[in-house]
Amino acid sequence: MNKKDLYRPNVAMIIVSSSYPHTKEIFLAQRNDLLDVWQFPQGGIDEGEEVQEALFRELLEEIGTDMVEIIAEFPEWISYDFPSRIAETMKPFIGQKQKYFLVKLHESATINIHTDEPEFSDYKFVTADEALNLSASFKKDVYKSVIGYFKKEGLL
């Protein structure tokens, strides 16, 4: 297995509310398995699955709705390493390589984090700066890059 194969393919979403672009609030969810860790919805891309297919599947699995419009896509894959406590449970992977999307909730979308296999215990909409302050340390550089890019593009 070469080094690039040690990073699990993953899709991640920065979700803005249906009032976007008038308000640029970002959805952030608190994990139910890691104390006080807030993050964007994300999930693995199954073998043979297209990235956008995974995006909509993961949204439905994690927040109970896939009623979103894709606003933009981060232009490259971005990766991070797992901290040792997480790496143990994710073997053989040492981290994730992610494709990020900026998506807008449809007005009729209803968020439900109490899904069949819930990953989150709470959620809120926050500013981009608050999202960076609340994010897990091992994801902070990725979040800074992705949020910075969407800000530079005038999207956040």
What does this structure look like?
It is built from 4 helices and 8 strands; from the N terminus they run ββββαββαββαα. The protein is an alpha+beta fold and 156 residues long. A hairpin with a 6-residue loop joins strand 2 (26-31) and strand 3. It is globular.
The SSE string, one letter per element, is EEEEHEEHEEHH
What oligomeric assembly is this protein in?
A: single chain
Radius of gyration from the CA trace?
Answer: 15 Å
- Our estimate of the beta-strand percent is 25-35%
Mean pLDDT: 93
What general outline do the C-alpha atoms trace? globular
The largest β sheet comes out as: 5 strands, mixed
- Count up the helices: 4
Helical amount: 10-25%
Poorly predicted ranges (pLDDT <50, ≥5 residues)?
none
Write the layout of secondary structure elements.
Layout: E1 7-16, E2 26-31, E3 38-39, E4 42-44, H1 51-63, E5 68-73, E6 78-81, H2 84-87, E7 95-105, E8 120-126, H3 128-134, H4 140-152
Parallel strand pairs: 1-7
Antiparallel strand pairs: 1-4, 2-3, 2-8, 5-7, 6-7
Question: What would a concise description of this structure say?
Answer:
The chain is of the alpha+beta class. The chain is built from four helices and eight strands, in the order ββββαββαββαα.
Descriptive terms for the model:
8 strands, alpha+beta, single chain, globular, 3-stranded antiparallel sheet, 31% strand, 5-stranded mixed sheet
